[in-house]
Design a protein that fits this description.
The two termini are 35 Å apart. It contains 3 helices and 14 strands. With 211 residues, the protein is α+β, with helices and mostly antiparallel strands. 18% of the residues lie in helices and 36% in strands. An 8-stranded antiparallel sheet has the order 9-5-6-7-11-3-2-13. The longest helix is centred in the N-terminal third of the chain and has 17 residues, at 8-24.
């Protein structure tokens, strides 16, 4: 299993910490050993990083930027960058999902900004505007989409690897959210939506919409 670089330090610290705990609390064996093994396994799987090549490169297709469940599909007002009406699709990433975030389309990074904020649960209606988050806009030949990585009550570490003017390929890794949370995608109103509420999607595998 390939692991993401964001997890190397955490996995090492967990291994040392659990090892010391088992060493000093020998009276709790074998229960403690079993709990430690399960906990360490969960931490390792949080940071798995499977190779995901896009099956068909097509910038009219907006691929899912993350693994998870579609929890929002609605028309909304995007107030940070576009400042107009957009279709919002939100993907909730549970702690059991792959946490890598991938570019739904290729193009140039037109906007990238980090916002400090609260840590409301990811499904809270105000989490998209009040939680810690990063906003990234990708533009290509008149097409543009906005991505918002949102921290939650557990996920308090957002990584975004791109900056304004960078070029990004469709399917390329652009960020990581430790321990889950949510990614919002804002699309033009004429986008042809290909997913439904409650559907489980995988990054670089499922098409969210055609634009």
């Amino acid at each position: 299993m390939r692991l993401h670089r964001e997890g190397f330090l955490i996995i090492a610290l967990a291994l040392v910490g659990l090892g010391l705990l088992n060493y000093f609390l020998t009276w709790a064996q074998p229960f403690l050993a079993l709990v430690s093994l399960v906990l360490f396994g969960l931490i390792v799987q949080f940071f798995r990083n499977p190779v995901r090549k896009i099956p068909t490169l097509n910038n009219h297709w907006v691929y899912a930027p993350a693994d998870g469940q579609v929890v929002v599909i609605e028309n909304t007002e995007e107030t940070e960058y576009f400042k107009d009406a957009r279709i919002q699709i939100s993907i909730f990433m549970s702690p059991l999902n792959v946490h890598v975030n991938r570019a739904p389309i290729g193009g140039k990074i037109a906007y990238a900004k980090y916002h400090p904020g609260k840590y409301l649960v990811a499904w809270h209606p105000k989490s998209s505007t009040e939680n810690e988050r990063t906003t990234t806009v990708i533009e290509d030949q008149g097409r543009s989409i906005l991505l918002r990585q949102i921290a939650g009550a557990v996920a308090r570490r957002i990584k975004c690897y791109v900056k304004k003017q960078d070029a990004v390929a469709q399917g390329e890794e652009f960020g990581f959210i430790k321990f889950g949370s949510r990614v919002d995608v804002f699309l033009p109103l004429d986008a042809n939506i290909k997913v439904s509420i409650g559907q489980k999607v995988k990054g670089n595998r499922d098409v969210l919409a055609e634009i």
